[in-house]
Write a structure and sequence with these properties.
three-stranded mixed beta sheet; alpha+beta; 52% helix; 12 helices; four-stranded antiparallel beta sheet
Length: 393
Amino acid sequence: MNLSVAPPNATLSARASRVAAIAAQHADDVDSAARFPREAVEAMRAERLLGIQVPLHLGGEGASLTQIADICCTLGQSCSATAMIFAMHQIKASSLVEHGETSEWHTGFMRRVAAEQLLIGSATTEGGIGGNLRNSICAIDVDGANCSLEKDATVISYGSEADVILITSRAHADAAPADQVMTVFLKDQYSLEKTHVWNTLGMRGTCSDGFLFKGKAPSEQIFQKPFAEIAAQSMLATSHLLWSGVWYGIAADAVLRAQAFVRAAARKSPGVTPPGAIRLAEVSNKLQIVKSNVIAGLKAYDDTKSDPDKLMSMGFAVAMNNVKICSSETVLEIINHAMLICGIMGYKNGTPYSLGRHLRDAHSAQLMISNDRILSNSAHLLLVQKQDTSLSG
């Protein structure tokens, strides 16, 4: 199953499938041991997937967001943690690609990402602000050609394993909480003191521990655009769309397991419709809804990305919020449905139809930026934005 409107790039698809095969071999151990999926990430590097979004003239492949979402889906069917790490890396890469070419340093750094297959981590959350990434307490200190930052980051995506971290802060000591910048810090430019252990229900292999971050770097590594523009013009859409690709992949694999269960039951009783067949048809419909939702979101982004004003419009923000809400809520319904089809064989661990890992990982979807927070934001926007009720736009 894939998310592409047209057949995906065959080379990218084949490379992603090879990584997915390795990820699948280790997925259960990654989950049970809550360990980083090192084998799968090394396979990503070997297949040179970490730099695919970087433009061709900077040594990358200029992969589209649809192609990247399709890889998220492929990986999500094998190992949710691997898929989420790939998605988070590409979300941060989108900030570089969309907003970095005006800076000589960031342009050079993109070349490094493609050449060295650097893994990019994210530090946008902070103690004292909850999950609101559009506010910061810490402030970056710029002293001429250099800058320094200390941040109580309650979550840093695969922080111990990242080669570089993109981190948000207030623009200066007197800046308002929402007056933020984002800065690139290379691994040898910061230290991490672990403050929280990532001991979670699902997505255990992302190893997103909490850290006290302390970094010093040249001030040219600060993005020239305010984080408000980066978030609105690329990060909002890429987060919701690539995360949705991961969740769709998780749900798709659950449906494939349910389908295999029903087929096995049918072979045992030829001529008799298995009890789960009707539910399988129902869950296939739900899966199609998620797929259509994500494809529509990818198309909307592709149609809009060249217009910064539209990217920052209320209508576009609501549309992307809706993609995330629909995907994150519906995948849980799908996996629950698949569990009913597979019965005790889906409930048990260690069977070809086991769905416990899928269900636990999918529960993260409504929490990665809280759906309540997103709905609240959409509600405020809809007070002043007319609802688009057409089928064409």
